Each structure stands twice: as structure tokens, then as C-alpha cells.
UniProtKB/TrEMBL annotation:
Disordered: region residues: 29-59
Organism from which the protein derives: Trema orientale (Charcoal tree)
Family stated for the protein in its record: Belongs to the VAMP-associated protein (VAP) (TC 9.B.17) family.
SUPFAM superfamilies attached to this UniProt entry: PapD-like
GO cellular component: endoplasmic reticulum membrane; plasma membrane
Keywords: Phosphoprotein
Low complexity bias spans: 29-51
Domain MSP: 77-199
Role, per record: May play a role in vesicle trafficking.
InterPro entries the record matches: Ig-like_fold, MSP_dom, PapD-like_sf, VAP
GO biological process annotation, one example: endoplasmic reticulum membrane organization
Name assigned to this protein: Vesicle-associated membrane-protein-associated protein
């Protein structure tokens, strides 16, 4: 009996010894499977968080780039002279003139257009046009000067009138029409907003001398455009007889031949 008890006890110990690893193996497998599941979930969450962080960083970088682009200066298509002002001689109650040089600095044709906050008292000549690459012109701006108010000094009067020059790239040579700027609003750029500066016409200054020189150049260019083009075609002589250079040379040659023939006879 003692042997059997001991044997049974030993069997129980062996059973317990064998039993414990079995249950531990099941618990270990379940715990390992749960740990794998949790690791997979953690990896999935980490992947989602990483993707969300990448998406947020992409959005932030896009936002930063757009904000940075908004702060960058606009690339100019035209060069203005003066760059941001219009000088007018101060003559109250009269219409005075200013001038501004406009040059196309692009490699393509550029259309420009003037706008003003006072279209009833100001106008431009020309109000718009198309410049070829490297081409330039001098535009003339006309303005009526209001008399001073509230006993202000004439030269201290500040004008609220402003002018704006807009530009638009166009494809090659074409006729200028203001509707170009309405049809392609997304491509229109504001080149500059010009402020009005009054000058004392009795006081010589470099700005006043430059203004007089630009106005003289603008008038000369206008007179040159008004002249009719030179006629390089056939000339009309007498009563509608058309004689070109070849016929004229031929007639002179025949006349010379006749004279030489008469002399020989």
C-alpha cells in the first residue's frame, strides 16, 4: 500500500509535472497569439498614425509653400520709368500732363492696360497696347487739377487719384482690344499702382526736367505715327499713267539709242 501510494503519488507528481507544461503551453500560445494580435494592432495604429502625420506634414508643407509664394514678389513683365509715381506740374484749374516709360522685359508679347480711380478727370494716351519683346514706349497721362481747399498750400495738396497698370502675356502679334483682360482674368497681373506727385512748375528739379524730356519724346513719337507711310509702289505721272522704275530706265535707254543713231547719221 505504501508502495502504491508512493507510486500513485509519484504518478501524480509526474502527471502534475506533465500537466503543468501542457497548460502552460496553452496559456503561452494564447498569450503569444494575443501578444501577436496586440502587436499587429499596434503596428496598424502606428501605420495609421504615421500616414496621418505624413498627410498632415504634406498639408502643412503645401500650406507653407502657398503662404511663402504669396509673400514672394510678383515677377514683373514691364519696366516702368518712373517705377511707382506719376509727376504732374501743379497748375490748379488746368489740365496737366505726365509721362511714364513702359518697356516689355519678357521674351513674349505683353499687353498692358491703364486704369484710374478718376476716369472722369483723367485719361491716358494710349490707354493700352501690345509690346513686342524689348519694345518700349512713353505713355502720356492727362489730369485735371482741382483748386486747393481749406486754404491749403498749392504744392501741399495731396491727390487721392491713383493709377494702375496691368499686364497680360499674349501669343504673338495681334490687335489690342481691352476685352483681352476680361477674357483671361486669371492671367492678368498688376504691375504697379502709381501715386500722383505734384511738382512746382516754377522750381526746376530733376524730376521736372525728366518729365519735360519724356513729354517731348512722347510728342515726337505721336507725330511720327501720324505721318503717312512712305509710298514705295509705282509712281503716277501725268493723267493716270503708271511708270515704274524698270519702264523709266527702258525709256531712257531707248531715247539715248535714238539720239546716238541720229548723231551717227
Amino acid at each position: 500500500m505504501a508502495v502504491e501510494a508512493e507510486k500513485s503519488g509519484s504518478d501524480g507528481k509526474v502527471w502534475r509535472f506533465c500537466k503543468m507544461p501542457f497548460w502552460q503551453g496553452r496559456n503561452g500560445s494564447s498569450s503569444s497569439s494575443s501578444s501577436l494580435t496586440s502587436m499587429h494592432n499596434n503596428a496598424h495604429q502606428q501605420n495609421q498614425s504615421h500616414q496621418s502625420v505624413e498627410h498632415m506634414s504634406l498639408q502643412s508643407s503645401t500650406t507653407v509653400s502657398s503662404v511663402a509664394k504669396s509673400f514672394l514678389p510678383t515677377r514683373r513683365r514691364l519696366r516702368l520709368d518712373p517705377p511707382n509715381k506719376l509727376f504732374f506740374p501743379y497748375e490748379p484749374g488746368k489740365q496737366v500732363r505726365s509721362a511714364i516709360g513702359i518697356k516689355n522685359t519678357c521674351k513674349s508679347h505683353v499687353a498692358f492696360k491703364f486704369q484710374t480711380t478718376a476716369p472722369k478727370s483723367c485719361y491716358m494716351r494710349p490707354p493700352g497696347g501690345i509690346l513686342a519683346p524689348g519694345e518700349s514706349l512713353i505713355a502720356t497721362v492727362f489730369k485735371f487739377v482741382e483748386p486747393p481747399e481749406n486754404n491749403e498750400k498749392p504744392i501741399d495738396q495731396k491727390s487721392k487719384v491713383k493709377f494702375k497698370i496691368m499686364s497680360l502675356k499674349v501669343k504673338g502679334e495681334m490687335d489690342y482690344v481691352p476685352e483681352l483682360f476680361d477674357e483671361q482674368k486669371d492671367q492678368v497681373a498688376v504691375e504697379q499702382i502709381l501715386r500722383v506727385i505734384f511738382l512746382d512748375p516754377e522750381r526746376p528739379t530733376p524730376a521736372l526736367e525728366k518729365l519735360k524730356r519724356q513729354l517731348a519724346e512722347a510728342e515726337a513719337a505721336l507725330e511720327a505715327r501720324k505721318k503717312p507711310p512712305e509710298d514705295t509702289g509705282p509712281r503716277i505721272v501725268g493723267e493716270g499713267l503708271v511708270i515704274d522704275e524698270w519702264k523709266e530706265r527702258r525709256e531712257r535707254y531707248l531715247a539715248r539709242q535714238q539720239v546716238e543713231g541720229v548723231d551717227s547719221v
